[in-house]
Fold this sequence. Notes:
The chain is α+β, with helices and mostly antiparallel strands. The protein has helices spanning 5-13, 27-40, 49-63, 74-78, 91-94, 104-108, 118-125, 128-142, 145-155, 178-187, 232-239, 262-265, 288-297, and strands at 47-48, 85-88, 113-116, 200-201, 204-205, 208-212, 227-231, 243-245, 252-254. The chain has two domains: 5-171, no CATH class; 178-297, no CATH class. The radius of gyration is 21 Å and the shape is elongated. The strands form four sheets. It has a three-stranded antiparallel beta sheet with strand order 1-3-2. A two-stranded antiparallel ribbon has the order 4-5. Strands 6-7 form a two-stranded antiparallel sheet. Strand 4 and strand 5 form a beta hairpin. The chain binds zinc ion. Zinc ion is lined by residues 192, 194-195, 197, 230-231, 233-234.
Amino acid sequence: MSLSSQDVLKAFERIRVFQRGSQRAVHKPLLILLALARIAQGLPRTMHFGEVEGTLRQLLTEFGPSSAPKTPHNPFWHLQTDGLWRLDGPSSLLNRAPAATPNLAEMREPSVTAGFAPEVDAALRQDPALRAQLAHQLLDAHFPDTLHGDILQALGLDLSVPVEDGSTSQRKIARRDPAFRERVLRAYEYRCCVCGFDLRIGNVSAGLEAAHIQWFQAQGPDIEPNGLALCALHHKVFDLGAFTILPDTYSLVFSQHAVAGEASRSMLLGFHGAGIILPQSKDYYPKAEFLKWHEGQVFKRPGRSL
Ligand SMILES: [Zn+2]
């Protein structure tokens, strides 16, 4: 049976992503993106876990919460339950209950292979536009825009196939409030709350962005207390978890994983321990629950000492 593009996109939209409340679960989306990149490179349908373990761990480290790299093998197993993924190996493994996740050593066994289900693989392999649509769908659902390019680059995935906008289901997750940016920038008086960057070209702010503290992909609301005005540089590294903001003092804390040389030190680590430039009204101050979400789900722990 062959699958239509719409069947494939709908099926992936339904994947069960382990999510307790607003906890981020990036394992399945990252493995699917990795498998798409393999198809684009003309690699075979199935892979050994050992072939992709290093890449997967790297992706989880860079784009997942601090705990994510400890379980790179989980999606290899759990993606099966969504019917889009096929695992092969000894029957002792295959006959296990879905919740009995094999450990790392069991997954690394040379007899274990996995890949998209054959009909899904066939549909994706023959249609680069479908692969691009699926990749956009996954990125929109799980990661802020600032990281899409980095993730694609890390995977070597090129999406330069035109994607039709509007007519298909893949864009409906993106629900942006166009007024959010303006409200947040105004709250912070049009300057980066870390470095004060406030370039204007003519009378338009340039290189200044409204960041969600709790990502909208994780149900973060479009309200000022969940927003920060950040320059493009600080927005990017905030979304990567290089720094976070303490809820009680609004001090900036940088990650021990963030290392910078002489030239970039003053733009980044130089702000460690400093307070953010606060919004013009207390009504707009970042709310503790959103800052705590960022610290738990995005920040690369441990933090540098203050
Ligand atoms: Zn800045």
